[in-house]
Write a structure and sequence with these properties.
The chain is of the alpha+beta class. The chain has 7 helices and 10 strands.
Amino acid sequence: MRAAVVRSFNEDLSVETVSDPACPDNGVVLEVAACGVCRSDYHGWVGKHPRIENGSILGHEYCGTVVEAGPHAMHRIGDRLIAPFILGCGSCPACQTGVSNTCERQIVPGFGWPGAYAEYVAAPFDHNLVHLPETMTPALAAGLGCRVTTAWHALTDRANVRAGEWVAVHGTGGIGLATLLLAKMLGAQVVVVDVVEQKLAHARRHGADAAVNAAETDAAEAIREIT
C-alpha cells in the first residue's frame, strides 16, 4: 500500500510503498476513506512525541470500509466505520467503568501503531468502532473520533453544561471550534478567546456570541464583563 511516512522531523512526509497491515484477530483492516490532521500529528512530525520515530505513519482521525476482519471481530467486510482515536481493550477495569481513554492496553493508531495516513489501517479492539451513517461524508466524519469527542466529553461529562449558561472557549482550533458548535447545540452562550483576529471572526461566523482578542485585552476581565 501507499503511505505517508515520517523519515525526518520537520521535513515533508515521504510517500512510499509499504507492507499492508496485518489484520488483528480481534479487529479489522479498513480501507481509509478520510483522515484528519490533528495538532498531535504536528507534535509528532516536529519530534516532540516519544512514540514517533523514523518510519512512523501518523493519522488517528479516520474512517473507512472494512476490507478484512479477524476471527473475533465484531464487524464484517463492507462495513463503513468510524473510530475513536484511542482503542481501549474493553475488558480492563478502566474500560469497564467507562474511562477507556485510560486503558493500560490502549492502542492509538499513529502513535506507536501504524496510523491512517495510508491506504489501509489496522484497528484492533474493533468494538470501539461504530457504523458511519450513509448521510455523513467521510471528510466530515473523520474528525469526530478525536476533536469532537474531546469537546463533547469536556462539555457533558466534565462541565455538565446546561442551556442558558455561558461557556468560555480558549483557542479556536479544531477542538475549540468543535466545543463552540456543541455548546451552542446544548443551548449555551459562548465567548471565544484567541490572539488571531481572523480566527475570532471565523468563530463568530460559526455562532460565537462574543469574541475576545487576548493579545489586546485582559481575557479574564473581558469574560467577566461579557458574562
